[in-house]
Amino acid sequence: MPLLFAQGLRKSFGETRAVDGVDFLVESEELVSLVGSNGAGKTTLVNLLSGLLVPDAGSIAFQDADITAVPVRDRIKAGIARSFQLVNLFDQLSALDNVRLAIFSRDGTTRQVLRLAERNRHAREEALEILRDFGLEDKWDTPAAGLAQGERKLLDVALAYALRPKLILLDEPTSGVGTREKGTIMDAVAQLVQARGLAAVIVEHDMDVVFTYSHRIVMMHQGKVLAEGTPEQIRADERVATALLGKA
Amino acid sequence: MDVLLAQLLNSLLYAAVLFLIAGGLSLIYGVMRIVNLAHGSLFALGAYVMAWGVSRVAGASGAEPAYLIVLLPVAAAAVGATGAVVEPLFLRPLYARAEEYQLLLTFGLLLILEDAMRYVWGATPLTVSPLWASFGSLHVLGATYPRYNVVVILLGLAAAILLWAFVFKTRFGVMLRATSQNRRMAAALGINVSAVYVQAFALGCVMAGLAGAVIVPIQGAVLGMGVDALILAFVVVVIGGLGSLEGALVGALIVGLVRTIAIQYFPELELAVLYLIAAVVLITRPAGLLGRA
Amino acid sequence: MDEAGIVLQVTNLTTYRGRAHVLRDVSLTVRGDEVVCLVGRNGAGKTTTMDSIMGLLPVRAGEIRLSGQNITRLPTHRRVQSGIGYAPEDTGVFPDLTVEENLRIALWLGNTGDGAGSDVGPAHVYELFPELRGLSGRRGFHLSGGEKKMVAIARAMMLRPSILLLDEAFEGLAPAIVKRFTEAVARIKAMGIALFIAESNIMTASRVAERLYVMDRGEISFVGTPEEAFADQGVMRIIHG
Amino acid sequence: MSSVQHSPDAALTLGTARDAHRIRPALWYTAALALLALLLPFLEGVPVIGWLASPFQRIQLTYGLVFSIAALAFNLLLGYTGLLSFGHAAFFGGAAYAAGLLVKYLHVYSMEGFLLAGLTSALVLAAVFGSVCVRYTRIFFSILTLALSQVLWALALKFFWITNGTDGLSIPTPTLLWGLVGTSGDKVRFLSFTYYYYVLVIFFVCVAVMGVIAASPFGKALQAIRDNEVRAQFVGIGVRRYRWYAFVISGAFTGVAGALFAPLNGLTTPDILHWTFSGKIVFMTVLGGFKSFIGPILGGIAYNYLETYVIKTTEYWQMLLGIILVALVLVMPRGIVGVFAWGSRREQRNR
């Protein structure tokens, strides 16, 4: 049985059907890329899966439990974490505290009112280790607002990663980053995801990246799934090329 | 019957003044998203300018209705001019910053204005009740009611209509509404947003000043009247919906009525009831009765 | 318009959004008699380019000239008066104003005429979009997506601009309506207004534009005709992904 | 693409995490100041600082410490959770009134009784107000806290047969430590010595506890909510619930300050329930600097001196406070602490 299984998802904004009857599944330890042109509905789909939006119709099951209407907090507990296309960090907190907060929250220690955060050695070490994994160890005490754009994107992913999810949803982890940096980011992210055996859904435009790392590619167009398959199948698919070129 | 009529008129009187104050507060918020804590003090400023003007022109006693006509616009304009100075000087640097700073700054302005008025006009209340008396009384349905109070009610009504016409029927009104709905787009269509802001803020101040000027013959100019008025104006806009002029009107009528009833039947709870209404409205309809979420 | 017929000239534009460096040395020109498209994916920097030209975002470095006049430091409303009309991606139609009011604002405020503007008037606009007459009393809030796009373009034209900036003019429109809009673009051009259009779909862009600028990660990576663009491996890679 | 909008004060706050290091030496200053405060009553004869040790000055400092507790507590909401309350007078005044009513109706004269009553009433009030207010943020939160606190003020004013209206409730000198320290005849001696120490100890405890709360995982969670509500949700924090916790904790400590204030002032009037008193708490906090933990402490003490000495020199002290507040917002949003940080940075640069 798949790790995540969404059926018949629909979501409209006014008259636009952003997601229009999408079936979507992710197996354990699978890396799925979500591709498609602007307005294809990729981000909306991620928002539905992560709980930021509630679908108009359809259902989402995670590890066989229905989570369609489950609030964000409980989805995170169940093991779904996400990063954001437009960086979403705790700007005044240091990089270390950003990651540490995710760890505290995961372990339920944010309830500790009368214990110094600093005294939690485990959290500190784990957070530093995660920062190291993402190449941010030198910036541990820099407030998130003071990081460069590429570092902010990495920290955003690191926050989701620190929650130790079973499934991680990454919405354009390299958008808004210079050409040179994007390879580094994707390498770091893809390696960590695979090393931990996480399942991942990555919204990405860079087809080189997509073909390199994905087990499976789902192509969306105008709110619907247009094509789906292994990188080889997608590469060979006529419809994909035309949709990307915009002939449709 | 006559008591009831007097109560009703009292409610309307109160509502008329409140509408002017709260309408200005709401207008300013609607256009520039600033909650001006000094708004009540601007209302008080209008009262002081009016009281001072009347005593200057009329001397101690010989007040005549004509003074009202002459001095009302003067007092309102003086407060509007104050607003036209305050906005570019103090508020403009804050639009890009967190909302809290605006509250803090306008709270500072409140403190300054309150003492400035004390400095200029002293701690003893200024009264111009002869002006009020000079209007005489009205006899309706066997009841006697001060004619001046009726004038204020009509003035409030006229202000509401004028304001409505101004906002919805004039060229400036269209630009004002456009700016309040989408500041960037307004600029991209050639609207000088800074100019609109100054004018909107000054207009809000004019309304507050007018309210202050018009209330003076009835209750005089007293220290602290501004702070009390601010809280009541908050109650009004919270009930009606912050940023909505119709809301300010509805809110003012509700508050006017509730207050009159409360004073009559359970005076201890007069203020508490009003604050509670505001709290209940905020909880059940966060955007107010006529506001949009 | 200066001698070379250039209406809009952008030189080495650098813009940040907050701390994010979005535009890197962007240079482009639009002549008075052409339609130019800025092509790129979401997040490539197209809207930032538009916002910078309009003065809605502060520019760190570079220069913007309109009909030869340096407008880099002018406030937005002054730029509009010098002859730019803008229809943003979200259309910016005022929701509580009627269509007529939306259009009238532009008529009051547009090009002051000291520059070389166009002399289009309401008659031209209604000729282009006759359905606007029927919508004049409707509030912006109650318009459909296509109607909003129409109002946004019509409103920008009411400013009597020498150049129109359209951000994602055809996005989210049904194919039939896209055709209607591409035809409208040709007719606007025929009225003597230059057009600069940000577009993410290269096929649509190539249908309306004589020249394309392809943008990727805040940089202009290609300039040329649509045919040249299709022949260019680099462009195709960027568009593909 | 509508990128994340950075409000320009993000740039102002860039220093926060870094300042933590720089302030390490400040720990020594703090210890020295604490020691000075402890020894103060015995330094009356010392030449340079003797004037500071006079009974009058010690009473002033006591007021300052009480305000500091309130400002610190308030800042748990403003600085740490990002909520600007204009209703903290309710908890301060509510606790003071609880002490006053205890005297009036139950004839209790024990300071611990006052503290217990004050703390309890503030807790209950904050729990109730909080459950309503934390549904909102920003301007609506401010207005709602203001409106609710005004209910209390209106009640205190109008139910004069219970509260004595504007005359207020008088609070006699209490016994301390469950009666171990009785009421002595000399009120000045009591306030400037015995009560001074009593307040000082409670002040230290409150600072320590609030300091730990601010640096605890819970405190970090509050800061996360302040910085980015949506992301806080997406690391699994129950945003509204945590705001409520913060509101209650903040209210409770403010209540402690109010209970300590009651016997110091000897009288509780509706003034300390009015929203302008809430405004004063806001002022103290901003004066000291709400972007740091110790700012409100400095602010509370500085405010009291300001009020005491400015009132003496001018009738128009409100105007002065207003001018200071406007200046703070426009040019010095980080308050007194910001000035120190700026000074030390200059010093470093000069070296």
TrEMBL record, chain A:
GO terms for molecular function: ATP binding; ATP hydrolysis activity. It comes from the Bacteria. Coiled coil: none annotated. Transmembrane segments: none annotated. GO terms for cellular component: plasma membrane. PANTHER family: ABC TRANSPORTER ATP-BINDING PROTEIN, CONSERVED COMPONENT OF ABC TRANSPORTER FOR NATURAL AMINO ACIDS-RELATED. Pfam families: ABC_tran, BCA_ABC_TP_C. Residues 4-247 form the ABC transporter domain. Gene3D superfamilies: P-loop containing nucleotide triphosphate hydrolases. It comes from Candidatus Segetimicrobium genomatis. This is ABC transporter ATP-binding protein.
UniProtKB/TrEMBL annotation, chain B:
The chain crosses the membrane at residues 12-30, 37-54, 66-91, 103-121, 148-168, 189-215, 221-242, 249-266, 272-291. Its main location: membrane. The keyword Transmembrane helix applies. It is a multi-pass membrane protein. It is found in: Cell membrane. It comes from the Bacteria. InterPro entries: ABC_transp_permease (IPR001851), BCAA_transport_permease (IPR052157). Keywords: Amino-acid transport, Cell membrane, Membrane, Transmembrane, Transmembrane helix, Transport. GO terms for biological process: amino acid transport. One of its GO terms (cellular component) is plasma membrane. GO terms for molecular function: transmembrane transporter activity. Belongs to the binding-protein-dependent transport system permease family. LivHM subfamily. PANTHER family: ABC TRANSPORTER ATP-BINDING PROTEIN, BRANCHED-CHAIN AMINO ACID TRANSPORT SYSTEM PERMEASE PROTEIN LIVH. This is Branched-chain amino acid ABC transporter permease. It comes from Candidatus Segetimicrobium genomatis. The lineage of its organism: Bacteria, Bacillati, Candidatus Sysuimicrobiota, Candidatus Sysuimicrobiia, Candidatus Sysuimicrobiales.
Automatic annotation (TrEMBL), chain C:
Keywords: Amino-acid transport, ATP-binding, Nucleotide-binding, Transport. CDD domains: ABC_TM1139_LivF_branched. It holds the Pfam family ABC_tran. Residues 8-239 form the ABC transporter domain. It comes from the Bacteria. InterPro entries: AAA+_ATPase, ABC_transporter-like_ATP-bd, ABC_transporter-like_CS, BCAA_Transport_ATP-bd_LivF, P-loop_NTPase. Belongs to the ABC transporter superfamily. PANTHER family: HIGH-AFFINITY BRANCHED-CHAIN AMINO ACID TRANSPORT ATP-BINDING PROTEIN LIVF. This is ABC transporter ATP-binding protein. It comes from Candidatus Segetimicrobium genomatis. The lineage of its organism: Bacteria, Bacillati, Candidatus Sysuimicrobiota, Candidatus Sysuimicrobiia, Candidatus Sysuimicrobiales.
From TrEMBL, chain D:
It is found in: Cell membrane. Keywords: Cell membrane, Membrane, Transmembrane, Transmembrane helix. One of its GO terms (cellular component) is plasma membrane. Pfam families: BPD_transp_2 (PF02653). Its main location: membrane. The chain crosses the membrane at residues 26-53, 59-78, 90-108, 114-132, 139-162, 195-222, 242-261, 281-306, 318-342. It is a multi-pass membrane protein. GO terms for molecular function: branched-chain amino acid transmembrane transporter activity. It comes from the Bacteria. This is Branched-chain amino acid ABC transporter permease.
